[in-house]
Specification:
- This protein has about 375 residues and is α+β, with helices and mostly antiparallel strands.
- The chain folds into three domains: about 55 residues, no CATH class; about 100 residues, Roll (Pdz3 Domain), CATH 2.30.42; about 190 residues, Alpha-Beta Complex (2-enoyl-CoA Hydratase, Chain A, domain 1), CATH 3.90.226.10.
- It has ten helices and 19 strands.
- The strands form four sheets. Strands 3, 4, 5, 6, 7 and 8 form a six-stranded antiparallel sheet that branches. The chain has a six-stranded mixed sheet with strand order 10-11-12-15-16-19, with helices on both faces. Strands 1, 13, 14, 17 and 18 form a five-stranded antiparallel sheet that branches.
- β7 and β8 form a beta hairpin.
- The termini are far apart.
Length: about 375
């Protein structure tokens, strides 16, 4: 298949992307025909200074949130202090060293609910992934009007407008495919002398849990694993971390399909010399930004092994495994190489909590954690 590249996308870059998709991407059932048809529909749009935008559109139409191309040249950025809470978008403004949330009612004159509905219809993702795409497009300057993003914001005196310029960045070296995830060290804390809180921010780096084993074996009656805002990471590291807390083999109830032909289910063996937690009360905290291996390996693994109690919000629902490829020093392509399916051949969806506990926007900006408090109050 031949493609004509525009001014900002050299033909060999497009050829490389199409070639890697044909060679590496895991197409199931009629997906390859869908991909070819989409390429035919979009190739003429990939031109001028919006080539990256139309490649993103092309990939999103495949209904696979792991599939992504990130250019590291001629990037647009907008620095806006915004975040989602439930289905509302907020502008976080600082006044006298205090953070105050203001609800954003519209962007560039379009109502927020209409934007969400449009994205949901266009891409057919669940609501959590849809919100992440809207936020990504705002921050990457894709939602703009004459070089700006216009926010209509509500406060106690009425509606005011914030106008944020779109900044052009010529080149970013070593662009990352981790969606801007900051990789923090694991955090530990103890509440009421018997509740051990373990915050795991990602599975991109190995965690050292063995320093806690003697404490867990002697004094701790309750474990809380906090996987909120954990964007996943390497499957192998998620499995290794889970194995440290297993006493018996765990077979997670879904299959990974790969190489377009074979399938296997995830069997995780306990690591010798691990900790005994089968008699402990085990909780897992999740939210709408918990995704990938944090959902389908660690959370579901603990659920299968110990019937842990999941608290918080429904997770992102980003299933599958992927690999990244450098594209001629111009960007990075992330391609899905495995997909998770259940025994009925359906894609795995998000993980729903046993106890749904929301966080309102005032609690978030003021650092009040009602979800964690709910667990601690249950155990006191």
């Amino acid at each position: 298949m031949n493609f004509v590249a525009g001014d900002n996308m050299e033909k060999n870059i497009l050829d490389t992307i199409i070639g890697l998709m044909g060679e590496k991407y895991l197409f199931r059932e009629l997906e390859e025909n869908k991909w070819k048809q989409l390429c035919n529909n979009y190739y003429s749009m990939i031109r001028n200074d919006d080539g990256d935008y139309y490649i993103s559109e092309l990939f999103r139409k495949m209904n696979d949130p792991h599939l992504k191309y990130s250019s590291n040249v001629n990037l647009n950025f907008t620095h806006a202090p915004i975040l989602w809470n439930q289905n509302h978008l907020y502008w976080i403004k600082e006044k006298k060293q205090k953070k105050i949330p203001y609800e954003i009612k519209s962007i560039n004159g379009e109502n927020i609910n209409s934007i969400l509905e449009d994205y949901s219809t266009r891409y057919n993702f669940n609501i959590n992934i849809t919100k992440s795409l809207v936020l990504e497009d705002i921050m990457m300057g894709r939602i703009r009007k004459q070089g700006y993003v216009y926010f209509n914001i509500v406060n106690n005196t009425g509606i005011f407008e914030e106008k944020i310029p779109i900044e052009k960045v010529k080149y970013i070296k070593n662009v990352s495919m981790q969606n801007g995830a900051v990789i923090y060290k694991t955090k530990f804390d103890i509440f009421k002398d018997k509740i051990l809180y373990i915050k795991i921010n990602s599975f991109y780096t190995k965690q050292d849990f063995k320093c806690l084993f003697s404490l867990i074996n002697k004094n701790i009656s309750t474990l809380i694993f906090d996987l909120r805002d954990n964007l996943g990471g390497y499957i192998s590291i998620a499995k290794q971390n889970l194995a440290l807390f297993l006493n018996e083999q765990v077979c997670i109830d879904y299959y990974s399909v790969f190489n377009r032909l074979r399938a296997y289910n995830h069997i995780i063996e306990p690591i010798k010399g691990n900790v005994r937690i089968e008699e402990k009360k085990i909780y897992v905290l999740v939210n709408e930004n918990t995704m990938s291996s944090a959902e389908y390996i660690f959370t579901l693994g603990l659920k299968k092994a110990y019937n842990c109690i999941i608290v918080g919000q429904e997770t992102m629902g980003l299933c599958g495994e992927c690999k990244t490829f450098n594209i001629i020093n111009k960007g990075v392509l992330r391609i899905t190489t495995q997909k998770y399916i259940d025994f009925n051949n359906n894609y795995i969806s998000s993980v729903e909590p046993d106890f749904f506990i929301d966080r309102d926007i005032d609690d978030i900006v003021n650092g009040i954690d009602q979800q964690l408090k709910y667990i601690i109050d249950r155990e006191v």
